[in-house]
Amino acid sequence: MAKNFIYKFGGASVKDSSAIENLSKILRNRLRNQLVIVVSAMGKTTNSLEEIIWKKMSNEDFSQNCSILKEFHLGICKELFPQDHLIFSLLENLFIKLDKDLEKPINKQNYDEFYDRIVGYGELISSRIVAEYLCLQGQVVVWKDAREVIHTDSDFRFAKIDWEKTRTHTRAQWLPVLEQFPILTQGFIGSDSKGRPTTLGREGSDFTAAILATSLDASSVTIWKDVPGVLNADPKLFPNTQKFEELAYGEAAEMTYFGASVIHPKTIKPLANAGIPLFVKSFLDPDASGTKIHEKAPNQGIPTLVLKKNQVLVSFKVTDFTFIDEGHIHQIYEQLKKLKLRVNMLQLSAISVSVVIDSQVFKLDQLLAGLKSTFEIRYNEGLELLTVLHQNPDEIPALLEGYEVLLEQSTRNTFQAVRRKSGI
């Protein structure tokens, strides 16, 4: 019996009409039943929706932002479809629903739930456009709402998967369809037990592909990117990058843990557990080899650079002349857990704890408020966290030239530095 396959196309691969036409060309000789296609929101749509939410939260007028977003998608459709096509009424209905959801109240307490309800429209809109365009080209796919099968808890913005329920519903609802047609669906979104929209974490469409692959016992997952495969650094930030022809699950997981953006960090584990290989390929050169991530790949040991921007360094100093102990660390981590803030780097001294976290709306203020009675707190925003895996110590100074280093630490395998441009 033939196995299922999962393809995932990110925002850059559906960012405009020519990108969607290119997606159709990629699928021309690859489209078949037993294929599930997962698509992200188009281009920077998620960023645009986040800005709308922020304006709503700040009691600012966001109507122009909504109009610009609508015209962006309509403009793409006008280039792809005849003017009487069904897509225009489908799009109109989705934007009417978005407007109605934006009328609902928002505050700091329900911000995450409101966020999930709104940002998911990016994937719903893009998947409708891509599905209708493929059908227009004679590439028949069945559009499915991922929220009907991706079941999660109610931890909005960072929802955790109900694996058993997701597997049961995905197989019951989608396997009969896949016997005859490919399915096109959305990444990033799910729903909780009350049917409320949830999201799986920023850039979570890769994770969706892995969830569906394990639920459907797929033979492989392919993520289509604007890079030739997994590189040892982001080519937009660092020169002379190297492509990995293959990677072991463990090495890939380590890269994503430290923030490598080519793959969502939650993607590797379910695929590794199920022994499903992951291919990372270029939608600009679809016949090239890309990178294969699987369990039998040899360790590469090539120095790998990961840069995370918009970082915040927060230092908690005890005020009663005692030393830092497990109780202090537990107290800090409890507050971080409550606010869903992940620690990207940790450093301890005798009297202080320093953590590096992603910058998130409201969260820093809430963190400070929750711990100011116990600690003297200082923080710096607008920083970068540089991580070098399989480091070559001789190459580190050049990476820090022109930067002020606020914090650094090194192990046999890993070097990390919190930095900012000198003079800032």
UniProtKB/TrEMBL annotation:
Give the EC number(s) listed in the UniProt record: 2.7.2.4
Reply yes or no: does the keyword Isomerase apply.
no
What's one Pfam family the UniProt record gives for this protein? AA_kinase
Q: Which InterPro entries match?
A: AceGlu_kinase-like_sf, ACT-like_dom_sf, Asp/Glu/Uridylate_kinase, Asp_kinase, AsparK_Bifunc_asparK/hSer_DH
Residue intervals of the Aspartate/glutamate/uridylate kinase domain? 5-282
Keywords for this protein: Amino-acid biosynthesis, ATP-binding, Kinase, Nucleotide-binding, Transferase
Q: In which pathway does it act?
A: Amino-acid biosynthesis; L-methionine biosynthesis via de novo pathway; L-homoserine from L-aspartate: step 1/3; Amino-acid biosynthesis; L-threonine biosynthesis; L-threonine from L-aspartate: step 1/5; Amino-acid biosynthesis; L-lysine biosynthesis via DAP pathway; (S)-tetrahydrodipicolinate from L-aspartate: step 1/4
Q: Which family does it belong to?
A: Belongs to the aspartokinase family.
Q: What is this protein called?
A: Aspartokinase
Instruction: Please give the organism.
Output: Algoriphagus confluentis
Species lineage: Bacteria, Pseudomonadati, Bacteroidota, Cytophagia, Cytophagales
